C-alpha cells in the first residue's frame, strides 16, 4: 500500500486489464469503467485522450499524466505557496510606501531599507520555488537550506544587538523572520514534491524515474543558479549587520533624546561651561547646524578649534534625524520638523539660550527656521555658504531622488562598506560620521527625505520664517569664492541672504574656499573672526553691534578675503 492510501493493482487485475491489451474491445471497456466509477483526486488532471497504457498496464514515463500534481497534498502546498507570495507582495508594497510616507505602526528608527530588502528576497525565493515547483532537486533544497541558515544568523544579530534591534523595530524583525520561515517552507515543499513525484512514477509507470529530460535538467540548472545568487545576498547582508554591530559600539559625546512623542531619538552634545556676566545674564552658546554631511566630520572640528582658542566659551551641536547617531524620522520629514526636533531636544536636555546659530549649506535652512520660531533666544546668526530657498529645487529634482532611492535599496548589501573595511582600513568613525557616512542607510534615507519635500514643504516653511524673522538680529554671511565665481545665480542668492535680517555685520567671500569654507585655513580664520564679533556683540547686550569689534563689510557689498 502506498503512503497515500492507494493500493496497486494485483496481478489478476493486471491480467484482466493489461495482458488482454490485444482485445479490440479493451479501450471501450476501460472507458465505460472510467465513466461508471466515482471520480477521484486525479481524474480532473488527466488528459481527455490519454495515451494507451503499455501491455503491462503502466503508462509511459513521458506521459503528461505522470505528474506530482496528481496528489492533492502537492496541489495544496502549491496553493499555500501562492498564498504566501500574495501576502508577501502586500507586505512588500506597504514597506515600499513607508519609505516615502510612513503608515502608522510601520515607522522604523533605521532606514527601512533592510526590511524592504528581506521582503524582496522572500519574494524571489517564493517565485523561484513556484517556477520550478514540479522539478524538485537536491541542489535546490541545499541552497534553500543555506538561505534559511544565513537568515537565522541575521535574526540573531538583529535581536542580540540593542541598537540594531531598536533601529529595525518590529517591521524589520518581522521581515527577516518571515524570510527565514519562507526559505524553510520552500525546503519542505521541494522535499514533499520530490517524494510525491517518485510516488506517482512508481504507481503509474511501475518504477521511479531516475532519468531527466533536457528540459528538466535546464530547469534544475537555472533554478540552482538563481538560488546560488540569492545566497550571496544574505551573505552580504550578514556582513553588513556585523559592521553595524561593530559601529554600534562607537562611543559618542552627549546623549540621545527622544523627540516627537519618543518616536525616535536625536543626538545632542555640548562642550564648555555656561557663563554669566555680573548681572546674571547668560553668555551666548554657539549652536551648530551641519550642512550636507554629519557635523562631527569636520565642521565640529573647526568649532572645537575656536573653543580652544578662547573665541567661544561654549557650543552645542546635534545630528539631524538620520545623521550620525540620530535615528531616522518618519517620512515625510522637512527642515521645519528638524528645527522643532532641535528645540525639543534642547528643552529636554535643559539647555537654555541665548543662542548664536552657526550653520552651513542645507543646515542654514534649518537654522533660519529655528531662529524665526525662537527669535527671543537668538542673539546672532552666522551663515556659511548657505543654501537659498529659491535653490531648493536643485536638491529636489526627481532624478536625484530616484538615484538616492536606488542607492538606498542596495545599501543593505554594503559591498563598498565591506570592501573598504577589509582592504582600505575604513574605521567605525568613517562609517558613522566620517568620510564614508554616505554609505549608511540612515544617511541615505535622510537625504531622500530632504529631496522629497525640499521644493514644497521645506520651501514653504523657510519662506514663512523669513517674514517673521527678527530684523535686529546680528547677521554674518561667509560665502565660497569658488561657488560665487562659477555660479552667478548662487552669487545673487548669497547677496539676497545678507538681507535676512536688517543688521548685517559682514558678508565675506573667501576666494579660494570651496562650498565647505572651513576646509581651508583662510576660511577657518575668517569664520572664527566673524564668530568672535558675534559673541562680543551678544555679550554687550544693549551696546550697538557696530561697537562690538572690528566690523567690516557693508550690506550688499562683500568683503573679499
Automatic annotation (TrEMBL):
Signal sequence region: none
Chain intervals for the UniProt region annotation (Disordered): 1-61
Record keywords, A-Z: Membrane, Transmembrane, Transmembrane helix
Coiled coil: none
Amino acid composition bias (Acidic residues), ranges on this chain: 12-26
Basic and acidic residues bias spans: 35-45
Gene3D superfamilies (alphabetical): alpha/beta hydrolase
Record field: transmembrane: 79-101, 113-133, 145-164, 176-196, 217-237
Name of the featured protein: Mitochondrial integral membrane protein
Protein's organism: Friedmanniomyces simplex
